[in-house]
Amino acid sequence: MLIINQKLVILVSLFFAFICAFFARKSNRNPFIWFLSGFFFGIFSLLTLSLLNYTKNLSNRKRKNTITGQSSNNKPPAPPTLSTHYLWYYLNPEDKAIGPMSSKKLFEEYEKGLVGNETYLWHDEMENWKKPTEINEFKDFFTKKPLLSQE
């Protein structure tokens, strides 16, 4: 009876570990950390991850309202809150990788018009190059701003 209970506990722990890792990867969070958290803390980790994603979505909606002009103030939108530990690269129109650079520097490149909605971005935890609209941190921020070289 004791062996069956131990196996059941391990199976349930693995279930929560994989679910947490799946949702962490989907929301651009470290899946390994969330796998371990899900294994040891189970439902509490899943609830925490859900709460983090919910608050992130709320802040993205507020940012989107600011960008689309639905906000009451007329200040330019603040740069997106990006993970500061990433070193970003982008492809210029000649498909040359430019970087590495911090999130702040990448936003400055956007302000200069060197990075736009159709520019491919990458950091070392990403499998492939992606457009800003495919990256959660940039999805609501980047607008269709033309690149300087295309003007």
Q: What series of H and E elements makes up the topology? A: HHHEEHE
Average pLDDT, rounded to a whole number, is: 78
What portion of residues is helical?
A: 40-55%
Number of strand elements: 3
Largest sheet: 3 strands, antiparallel
Number of helices: 4
**Terminus-to-terminus distance:** 73 Å
Radius of gyration, whole Å: 20 Å
Please indicate the count of domains. Answer: 2
What is the overall shape? elongated
Low-confidence parts: none
> Beta-strand level of the residues, as a percent range?
5-15%
Please state the structural category.
mainly alpha
The side-by-side strand order for the widest beta sheet comes to 2-1-3
Describe the 3D structure.
- The chain is mostly helical and 151 residues long.
- The chain folds into two domains: 2-67, no CATH class; 88-150, no CATH class.
- Helix content is 47%, strand content 7%.
- It is built from four helices and three strands, in the order αααββαβ.
- Strands 2-1-3 form a three-stranded antiparallel β-sheet.
- 18% of the residues are buried.
- The mean pLDDT is 78.
List the helices and strands and how they pair.
Elements: H1 2-26, H2 31-41, H3 43-67, E1 88-91, E2 97-101, H4 103-112, E3 121-122
Antiparallel strand pairs: 1-2, 1-3
List keywords for this structure.
4 helices, mainly alpha, 2 domains, 151 residues, single chain
A few lines on this structure:
The chain has 151 residues and is mostly helical. The protein has four helices and three strands; from the N terminus they run αααββαβ.
